[in-house]
Amino acid sequence: MICRNIKSKMPDLLLAPESVSAEVRAHVENCAECAQELRELEATMAAMDAWEAPEVSPYFDGRMAAVLREEQQNPPAGWLERLRTRLTFGEKMNLRPVAAAALALVIAVGGGMFGVLSDHSAPPAQAASPVIQDLQSLDENSVVFQQLNSMDQQQDSGDNGAANPNSL
């Protein structure tokens, strides 16, 4: 047999061993893991049988009644505390319909906002003039700018030397 199936029958084996089949008892005798678990359950049950509840003080009921009366006479601290008390301890308060309605409202508003915000289609692109298209293509191509700058610098350095006769 499978140990998992045996473990579900351990309480029956512990409390009423005659109601458990011989096959289960034979498995527990042959399987070390199942036998260990049965011993642990027996030890737990023995510890629970030996445990005794502590004796209650003879004045416990009187003190508890006084504390409850005092708490009932004190008004809650504020409106939020009163609301929490009413929702927590109020009679005939069933909050499931209120919670369901609030959730439905949140989903409806959220879904509506998602639909409104996600339905933005881009305006159709207007045809730009050829000059603007050329400037945009130059702007997109940085290599062309670098080449033009280097050509300008070479031309400026060549013109300055020939144009300035006092540079000797």
Written description of the protein model:
- With 168 residues, the chain is mostly helical.
- It has a domain of 42 residues.
- The radius of gyration is 44 Å and the shape is elongated.
Essential attributes:
disordered C terminus; mainly alpha; 71% helix; 168 residues; 9 helices
Query: How many β-strands, per DSSP?
Result: 0
Largest sheet, strands/sense/barrel: none
Distance from N terminus to C terminus (CA atoms, Å) equals: 109 Å
Uncertain residue segments:
163-168
Mean pLDDT reading: 79
Percent of residues in helices comes to over 70%
Q: Gyration radius, to the nearest Å? A: 44 Å
% residues in beta strands: under 5%
Number of helices: 9
> H/E element string?
HHHHHHHHH
What's the SSE blueprint?
Blueprint: H1 3-7, H2 10-15, H3 22-30, H4 32-50, H5 60-73, H6 79-89, H7 96-118, H8 130-140, H9 142-163
Helix pairs in contact: 3-4
Brief characterization of the structure:
The chain has 168 residues and is mainly alpha-helical. The protein has 9 helices and no strands. The N and C termini lie far apart (109 Å).
